[in-house]
Write a structure and sequence with these properties.
The protein is α+β, with helices and mostly antiparallel strands. The protein is globular. A three-stranded antiparallel β-sheet has the order 3-4-5, with no helix packed on it. It has a two-stranded antiparallel sheet with strand order 1-2.
Length: 94
């Protein structure tokens, strides 16, 4: 479903192809974050390091908009993810 919704890294301005991204748990798996569409976002290796080792925080709303904050708490971006297609992913009716 994420592949249908995103062509690239979900963070603004990043053009790393979906195939070269990691699927990131917004609420981290080790903090009991669910492995479901509401908690997953494709992000590239560089942005993944920003979030995990660099102290950046990322939140994802149900409409797939994000809030991205720098380690000092200042706002870096709030709004839509880069290539999010607002249509829901197709369901398997077979």
């Amino acid at each position: 479903a994420l592949r249908v919704m995103y062509r690239t890294c979900g963070l603004p301005g990043c053009q790393v192809r979906f195939e070269d991204c990691r699927i990131h748990h917004v609420t981290w798996w080790e903090h009991l974050g669910a492995t479901n569409l509401d908690n997953l976002l494709p992000i590239c290796e560089r942005h993944h390091h920003h979030v995990h080792e660099g102290g950046w925080t990322l939140t994802l709303k149900p409409d797939r908009t994000i809030t991205l904050r720098r380690p000092d708490g200042t706002l870096h971006h709030e709004g839509p993810t880069t290539t999010h297609d607002p249509r829901p992913p197709p369901t398997n009716t077979a």
